[in-house]
């Protein structure tokens, strides 16, 4: 290829693209160089062009003749992929979606709106199963300015998609693209796809969970994040542990034991408060080893909790009074052991006459109190113990009438206590572990603390700028965390009106959150389809879990602290291993949004409640075990087993809660 | 290009007062409008999810607008989801079905004074307050009232809508140890069974599922069943029904229909207690089924028995007085007896249960006489030993109850007296049969003491005759047909005339001996001692074997029996004594 040709191409290209000034400058320079004849060095470097690239440039210039090329090019690629060998098809199919969306966005960006629409509509169906939500978002993009404005599209344009592919598939793809001279596709692939080519056989379908999910950072960064160490063990010196130690002692000796322990407990508590930080960092290393060692041996089903390693709390923990401790110990002693063969009893609380106004419900740890947040800004609390005796209730109602939050009781006896204070729909409510406080979050961007003893509002926490979707008490009380539409999660303590930590990083609303059993971590689920795990002390993101295909609505942490379950809008539940950051197994079964998840107290069962009016019980022990022993054989064996489906009559299940004695409480609204 | 047509943009522009919107602007705005609307809807969906709903409401759109700092659209808020109707001729066009409210229904025109006096103040609402000109309304109505309207006030007639019910919370057990209790609060179990089924399939676990068994019967059998039931219901006195009964009693291929027939019988009996002919037909149907040797009816007896017992001891059977329910009771009694006889040995508690039920009916003085009659007949049909054990011990108190009802002067109600006499007749038959059996048993050894017995019996008979002259006459006066019916089930006594003869003979005998005026109780004591002596005498006359001694003992009881029976029924008992003995007596 001689220089003349190249020059011709370049000028033709510039002309075509309408770069008039550049072309002009180019021509001038060309003239200039010709006259001076001293440009040999520059052009000689140009002349070392790979002939291949030159050809590409040539074809590029030729092919740039209209948006119809796009549709042709994509449909060619599509039919080629679908007709490829089964072995490689799965890998090659993954390329289609990124190419599709970027093709579309290219068309929009170039102003070919009509064509973009028709292109989108003609191939939309291919991707609907996997990427329905994203497509719905993109569908509305109708002008280049929208692309700029829309955050989702914007970040899509800027980020690269990771696709894992075996060597041979990769070569096949490149060969095809070269042969058909589909330069636009090549361009997109270069620009937006990051191939991670590995030698050997193509992977099986099960790896398909690595869908295109935006995380706002590169895959490497995510990997780095997921490399960070976490200590999933339980708090040392927990009540459970003490119960295990004392074993089957009678309550009297138990009491003595508890009293003896009391000073101990206080000491332990003070240490971290005063300056345990350096100490804990050293201990952390030790614990790490312990964690690694304890993770390996197979656990017996009943003693899962015991086998978990112990960690130091990073937060200063509140004290627990002796009576409360006694009652908890009593509960623990009377706990029903649940397993595959011993399923729990489920008590369903059904709300009636809510007129579509109920947004959330929450059940206290002993199931005696039920709180419900309504879209008319009210929070209502039912005392289930009093529900049977209405006459007694009315007398009590009179007492509570004196509090500022009580009015309108003239209508007669009401079975609930009304808390008013919010100025927007109440989206979440949570009971403190002892049931004496309730926190509620609302669309008015505040969180309010209520006392169930005084029936009054105590504190209003302001900090978020947008509706607060979720609020959760920590397992030990005192601390709580909130998730908001402003894409942050915040950690608070009851005694301060400012947040202690702001956890920022999600690319969309933070929809739900859950504390880790040892209070050192918080998991958040977001509309950006990721779940993140944050270190409470540092406020850093320590894990990113990618795999969901729609908005995450519910989270649950296993009591041993090793696993996490998350449920999404489409009814999928995923079980994650916190250590590896990988999905242990997806749980398919629900047909609609999973509103709530709960682990049984010893961690052998997972209960899920959904909008499809069912409560499902899943076997957790077998699945986690299987996955550990047969890590590589990802197939049907590792699937979590659905033990039982309990259909309600017509009640979507909004919340689930295992009491300390392993009785399962469920709450939902009767809907016609 | 955009879903929103540019015409829509133009219309909206006009509605807010921009009349000179150029087409280019509209064209450019259309895609942007679509983009914004989609954006809002996505936010709205988010709000919907956080309200834990799966249907989008106007509230969600409002809160989405609020999130974007846009003024919400007022006026569409509604607690319930809107009802959309499809526009005719358009596939994707919907509109809200907004019902027109008739003012006529809502308001009345009322006088000032009346409204202020009669209707609570807050119910009065001027139309002008509602933004409606009352004059227009009135003019449109155009009725003669128009002239008076100016002095009147419009008042809402329709009552205020009820305040919505307050939220409440109920609780129930969704599952107890993993098993859903079958309570109305839970979803019906079929659904859960289905769920379980699919689940087990998924997991490939061996699970024991019992599918509901479908009972398939052939078309021919179906037709047969329909025909029989139709016949039973409508033409139970036709010849064809009789043939059908024969077929039911003999056909060998009917077993699949048995549960249906049993159900049919029990169902129809409970529903048609006042339809006498149907009840009778049903009993005959039941009888045929029981008779059929090819049908294994035993498992269904527990379903069948209550129906039959009902036909035996129900308070009322049939609606008219002309219905011969006595006959039906007799029939049912025989049916019960035959069932007990046939299945008593395999179905151990059948006999005790039936007798218990009947005795309860018999001993309950609050029950009506027809019920007593049925119970007595039923017990009698079960055999003399049952009568001996259960009726005879209670005979004396029962007679005390029955006696006043039978006498003309004490019971004025003809119907009731008649019923009492029926019961009396039934009792007599039962006791008599029992005695007959006893006496027949000891026929061989009866001769020696018979005289003594005869003598004492004679005494008693005389007593009774004197005492019951009127009543016996009453009995005699009964039309022969009814008489026959009374005794119908007892084939043994068809000797009406003989009874009369006997009466005469006994009377003569009594006068011959002379009336003694001792009390009944003392008399019977005397009688027994006499009998005793008589027997001893008999014993001495040569019967010495131990078997016979035993027989004597029993005979002694029989003697007791006879004596007490005579006490109650008088000489009519003679008709039950076997002829050879009767001849002895005479």
TrEMBL record, chain B:
List localization entries.
Nucleus
Protein's name according to its UniProt entry: Transcription initiation factor TFIID subunit 6
A single GO BP term for this record reads: RNA polymerase II preinitiation complex assembly
Q: Which organism is it from?
A: Morus notabilis
- Give GO MF terms, alphabetically: protein heterodimerization activity; RNA polymerase II general transcription initiation factor activity; transcription coactivator activity; translation initiation factor activity
**Domain TATA box binding protein associated factor (TAF) histone-like fold, first and last residues per copy:** 2-68
For this record, the Gene Ontology CC terms, alphabetical, are: SAGA complex; SLIK (SAGA-like) complex; transcription factor TFIID complex
User: What are the protein's UniProt keywords?
Assistant: Activator, Initiation factor, Nucleus, Protein biosynthesis, Transcription, Transcription regulation
**Xref: InterPro entries:** ARM-type_fold (IPR016024), Histone-fold (IPR009072), TAF6 (IPR037796), TAF6_C (IPR011442), TAF6_C_sf (IPR046344), TAF_TATA-bd_Histone-like_dom (IPR004823)
* Primary localisation category: nucleus
Which CDD domains does this one have? HFD_TAF6, TAF6C
Matching entries from Gene3D superfamilies are given as: Histone, subunit A, TAF6, C-terminal HEAT repeat domain
| Family membership | Belongs to the TAF6 family.
Q: Where is this region: Disordered?
A: 185-204
Biased amino acid composition, Basic and acidic residues: 193-204
